[in-house]
Amino acid sequence: MLLSLAAVSAAMWAVGVTILQPLSEPEGPAAYGENNTYWARELRWGALIALILMAIVYARGDRRATRAVSAGGLLWLGADLGLDRIDQDSGTMRLAIGAVVAILAGSAAVRAFSRVSRPGTLLTTATVAAVASGLVTITESPTDTEVALHLGSAAVGSLLASVAVAAAVRAAPVVSLTRVAVGVLLTAAPWLLRYVSPQPSAGRVIGAYAFTVLLVVIVVAIALRRNDHTPVAVIAALVLPVLWLPLTLATIVLRTGAPFTALAANPPADAADEDVVLILVAIPIGLILGRILRAFASDRPLTAPDRMPSR
């Protein structure tokens, strides 16, 4: 199951490179980008984050393995920018097969020298995936009419939610099938949100926010086998906007997407518009949220109901 998710992530990344990216790039000698022009970058980097996280999960969160996977992820990002720069718009099957082989071989390699399972790292991996799932689900484009945008956003959002649940299961000392079933049901939420609200709206943002909070609650319930869900929901509900707002503002002011746009030799965004990569914001938010939840769990001893096996 873990390797299957890693393989799907790699294949979706390849589709993002060769099919989605060409759809999003402006054409013409005087072309320039607008707000959300490079929506395909958000989606394929969401898939890239998913495959990196799955490799960490497969290695059980081992410290050395996590460092090796992170380094490999940076190399993969470099390859991504290189393919974008040469406008790779064909050979989807070959690229997908190569990416799948690479992630499977890499996962097997890091698993071979991983020694210690680290449930805390796995829980943090789950929170990063959960936050990324919510963010990629609300990806927009200048027109928001592209079928590929809606399908890709829902698919990558569902993929990341699946990664979050898988990481939580890997971290759990004993797996509760009931809680896992709830988590699996939640992975369909990105599809529902994109179907109900195909155009950007406050409702879709609120829905994605509620979905992310619920996903965080269920992954904590799976990983830590705790029954006190309300405090976890409150922490997630407060931490997410408190971190998301300033980090998003910082990405807008700093135009964090501009260097990647230049490295990929794509038309720059107009000076009056934004060039950001919002999916990357999920990483610090998820890391901080995971740390807070781990500290919360360690400060609260298990109560009698918590020790009872869940169905």
TrEMBL record:
Top-rank lineage group of the source organism: Bacteria
Q: What is this protein called?
A: Integral membrane protein
Record key words, sorted: Membrane, Transmembrane, Transmembrane helix
The reply on keyword Repeat is: no
List residues traversing the bilayer: 42-59, 95-113, 151-169, 176-193, 205-224, 231-256, 276-293
Q: Which organism is it from?
A: Actinoplanes lobatus
UniProt signal peptide: none
| Entry keyword annotation includes Plastid | no
